[in-house]
Design brief:
With 203 residues, this protein is an alpha/beta fold. The chain contains nine helices and five strands, in the order βαβαβαβαβααααα. The longest helix has 26 residues, at 122-147.
Length: 203
């Protein structure tokens, strides 16, 4: 039986989705906030097949939850639920592997349609996400380490990201910043020059 995690701070939404999903044969876990969602993901990460995630929640947004679960290593499809869709949210969530949006208010039929869409394209999604996530997660992790001045570990992680995709200019920029911070100015300039070349080439 497939297991689904529903994350929303509104009780009625959790109940509606639970009913819809259970009728389709899914086992449903629920979380009312981001922290609870992450706790459940850590505990059940090998077993969760799909996540329905509200984008606007108090204390911890859906985007933050999505970043964290990707860093944990969970790569299952995520459906973003929102009544306030924005271009920025769409871009941020798509980069992290969100596969669909569920606009509130929604009907049981719409939930079914989104599930069918995901299941029909899951094989393609898995292949794309496998590569997207590894690179994106490494970059996100490096930024966290940079913010904590953990330059050595951030550098090691970025070298792995560079091996996956040597055409991502952001990686060169981040490595340049690390070298500036540890006073390796020649290397900082070298990586910044590569970054600028990508900019000039509009890559």
């Amino acid at each position: 039986m497939n297991k689904v995690l529903v994350v929303d701070d509104t009780k009625n939404i959790r109940m509606l989705l639970t009913t819809c999903l259970e009728l389709k044969g899914y086992k449903v876990l629920t979380a009312e906030d981001g922290k609870s969602a992450i706790d459940k993901v850590r505990k059940e990460k090998e077993n969760i097949d799909i996540i329905f995630l509200d984008i606007r929640m108090p204390e911890m947004s859906g985007t933050e939850v999505l970043k964290t679960i990707r860093e944990i290593g969970v790569t299952c499809p995520v459906i973003i639920m929102t009544a306030y869709a924005t271009v920025k949210n769409a871009i941020d969530c798509t980069k992290l592997g969100a596969v669909a949006y569920l606009q509130k208010p929604f009907s049981p039929d719409r939930v079914g349609a989104v599930l069918d869409e995901i299941l029909n394209s899951k094989e393609i999604f898995d292949e794309k996400l496998k590569h997207l996530d590894e690179e994106s997660i490494l970059i996100l992790k490096s930024k966290e380490l940079l913010a904590k001045d953990n330059f050595e570990e951030a550098h090691n992680i970025l070298k792995k990201a560079l091996a996956i995709n040597p055409y991502n200019k952001e990686i060169y920029h981040l490595i340049s910043e690390i070298n500036k911070n540890i006073n390796k100015l020649d290397k900082a300039k070298l990586f910044n020059d590569i970054y600028e070349l990508f900019n000039e080439a509009h890559i």
